[in-house]
Amino acid sequence: MPTMVDVARSAGVSVATVSHVLNDTRPVLPGTRQAVLDAVEELGYTPNTLARSLVTSRTRSIGLAVSAISNPYFTEILQGVEASALEHGYSLLIADPHDDPGHERKVVQLLHERRVDGMIVAPSAEPGDLVAYLGRHRVPAVFLDRVVEVPEGDGAPRFDQVCAEGAEPTALLVGHLAGLGHRRIGLVAGRPGLSTTRERITGYRHGLAAAGLPFDDRLLVHGDSEADGGERATAALLSRAVPPTALVTANNAMTIGALRALRDRGLSVPGDLALCCFDDFAWADLFTPRLTAVAQPSRDLGAQAVRLLLERLAAPDRPARTVRLPCAFVHRTSCGCPEQTEQAHVTAPERNLP
């Protein structure tokens, strides 16, 4: 098996130079760097990752803690994280916190004990223990999809965050349904306590207000971000003395649950109930009718999280950033509009918040 000495001899450089090239510990002239990389390729040299981590205190690994990995939205985020991590020479360790604060704390500790260089976490609705652990151990971390309010001040932990816009796209869905003549528009909201849930409820209320419609708390039901919860929430709305004529579902899993509830009652979309959903997914245009939706930039969210984490590793003391990426409105037919060429437009530009 070739060694670093063999690489140095083949490239005509010192062993220290080979180390600097492979570990990015010091700038090396482009020609020299290429000679080392060519020698590595020619000899089939494989660096000893364990030995390198002992020298550099870096394992070139990232921990990813995301619940509901089976959800297509989070699956695409994972793909974005993995592709970006590999591009920068990092491996990925994945754990599922199951949206449970206690389990979240355990899996984050396990990832930390595996000596990952940093973490990307989609926090639960009660992230207090998570924030305390990451802050106490000074773990470089990025919060993904769901934002957390962390008090600022001297000594406070610095957490970068990346998420999609939530309020404005939801308001757009409500406004679209109101523009089609609907006056009783229901919302199947997500798990209470999540920032995504709060933002989509805010957007729902803003959309109603902009359309001159009153907010009726009987038309807002939580589906807990799951298909079964979405089914129960939709059934509850349909049982109202005066049920909604249109519905906004706040994520793709709850959309599936809502469609089940409608099917079980023999109701059609959009004939009996118009439907718009937050989260587009691969088969949304295979339903009959095709689903009008807000599409989140899921892969871009994953890639942006990796970029923020690597920036944090390079500059631990820089100010924390919150990056919000725009969504797109995908206009199909479940809202009651006639069949047309699919349209998508961005709902807001990317925002970088201090």
- Termini separation (Å)? 50 Å
Q: Spans of 5+ residues with little confidence (pLDDT < 50)? A: none
Chain-averaged pLDDT: 89
| Largest beta-sheet characterization | 7 strands, mixed
**H-E string:** HHHHEHEHEHEEHEHEHEHEEHEEEE
Residues in helices, as a percent range = 40-55%
Question: Can you characterise this structure?
Answer:
- 42% of the residues lie in helices and 17% in strands.
- It is α/β, with parallel strands linked by helices and 354 residues long.
- The protein has a seven-stranded mixed beta sheet, sandwiched between helices.
- Strand 3 (118-121), helix 7 (128-136) and strand 4 form a beta-alpha-beta unit.
Please give the structural blueprint.
Layout: H1 4-11, H2 15-23, H3 30-43, H4 49-56, E1 61-65, H5 72-87, E2 91-95, H6 101-113, E3 118-121, H7 128-136, E4 141-144, E5 160-164, H8 167-179, E6 185-189, H9 195-210, E7 220-222, H10 227-238, E8 246-249, H11 252-264, E9 274-278, E10 292-295, H12 298-314, E11 322-325, E12 328-331, E13 343-346, E14 351-353
Parallel strand pairs: 1-2, 1-3, 3-4, 4-5, 5-11, 6-7, 6-8, 8-9, 9-10
Antiparallel strand pairs: 10-12, 11-14, 12-13
Describe the structure in brief.
The chain is an alpha/beta fold and 354 residues long.
What labels describe this entry?
single chain; 354 residues; alpha/beta; seven-stranded mixed beta sheet
